Amino acid sequence: MSPNQSAFLFDLDGTLIDSVYQHVLAWKEALDREGVDISVWRIHRKIGMSGGLFANMLLRETALEITPDRLDRLRQWHAEAFKRQHAQGSVRPLPGARELLDYLTMQDIPWAIATSGRMETAAPNLSALGVDPAKVPVVTRDQVHHAKPDPDLFLAAAARLGVDIHQSLVIGDSVWDMLAAQRARALGVGLLSGGYGQSELQQSGAFRVYEDPFDLLRHVDEVAARR
Predict the structure, then answer these.
(1) 139-156 burial, b for 16+ CB within 10 Å, e for fewer?
(2) CATH of domain 8-19+92-222
(3) Which of 137, 37, 114, 29 is nearest to 79 (CA)?
(4) What's residue 138's pLDDT?
């Protein structure tokens, strides 16, 4: 594959999978178990960044002591709660997600997935999408030093594809995706399917904003480079 070929680098939760609010509730349950009282809306505003950085920021807002043991417990409880959400069938691909990935594959446009989640929570999402990590590059928090808003995930995804990050598109639903795209010197495309507003995404660097994967697919000619 040519290093000069452009590619689509997708976030996962809220971008391809309708799972942001399930993650919010899973984090709420984990924090409640730890005795940390934080409003749901505050949790949502930080969804999409690195889980460790996310927990650090939330605990700092409550002036509680941040210890490795506490962070490990929160991560484990969050993963358990999110898996229960999946088992209940409430986590599904967003409209047009599978069709968009199929279109890119048929057009021979390279794509990869880069998520701040660890594989333990990403695996059921990938299964729901019909994505096999053995065949499609998938970069998770387990594989990089820093997650979003640092650029490591998307840089690693571009490297796995063998493409130039500067000619790639980062597709995400949160301000953290757009900030990571800017730091990677990639073009950011925002989706409204994670709960952030159009102006928030644009102010964070998105040069185009669409409603969801289906809307992006309908307008893919606006962002996809010709082969």
Answers:
(1) bbbebbeebbbbbbbbbb
(2) 3.40.50.1000
(3) 29
(4) 97
